[in-house]
Amino acid sequence: MYTIFLRGIRQGLGVSWTLGKIVFPVTIIVTILQYTPILPWFIKLLGPIMGLLGLPGEAAMPLVLGNALNLYAGIGAIVSFDFTVKEVFIMAMMLSFSHNLFIESALASRVGVNWFFISGLRIVLALVSAVIINLTWSGGSEIAQYGLMGSSEVVLTSWTAIILHGIKTALMAVLQLSLIVIPLMVVMQYLRELGWMNKMSRLIAPFTRFLGMKSNTSFTLVTGLTIGLAFGAGVMIQAVQEDGVSRKDMMLALIFLVTCHAVVEDTVIFIPLGISVWPLLVIRLATAIILTVAVSFIWNRVERRRKDMTYEH
Length: 313
Hints:
0% strand; mainly alpha
């Protein structure tokens, strides 16, 4: 049992190092950008586009911050303005699909799926959902009540302080990632070597088959759904290396998870904004299932056609 624990620790340290090499530099760059003219300029540039989504120009700030940083930064920007319930719901829906874009997409791409595909899919889902909600929902015109929630912003006055703040933020991000990834890898090592992984795979095998994937992707799906895409990336990397997950199954798993991951945390976090969060969860889950099943169906049709052509030749 002790040797299993040590193997899990080594696996966790290796995965943490792999993920940390992405998280650390990206976090520093994005954190520093907050204190330069670049981010405000980009927000101002997106202002006119917001009208097409049913949002005022100020909505560009929480959307940019939420995508560049995380959901907490986006929500902190939302509560800085007076938005209607409909506008808050649209932004919450967009940020549910597309947030922490650089880090989460970069980590997910470590399993061999193109970064631009992952990021593009999340952005398209966010934009399409905003347009549909804006066109189909006529209510929500009252001003949203944010309860006791308020915004907070670190005020820094020198480049030295800004760079140190960026390094500190990056170190904390890597530390938090490691504190979750290492125990998770230990647990996975025990589950795998004691045979529990096979039992879990059989338990949710019907759902994974319905999505078009084999049962060895089940733990990847469960991890991504519960703790998120960034932390779930460690499980994905190990699954590709040790569990023999195929490129097709990992692609389908990623399509599902970039659409719907960390369903509890990413849903509950919007409650203080004064909106109904159940539609967020239902829309994300339904979109993930429909999109994954559709891609799996098309993929299988293409594979069968190629096999038929090969047999003909």
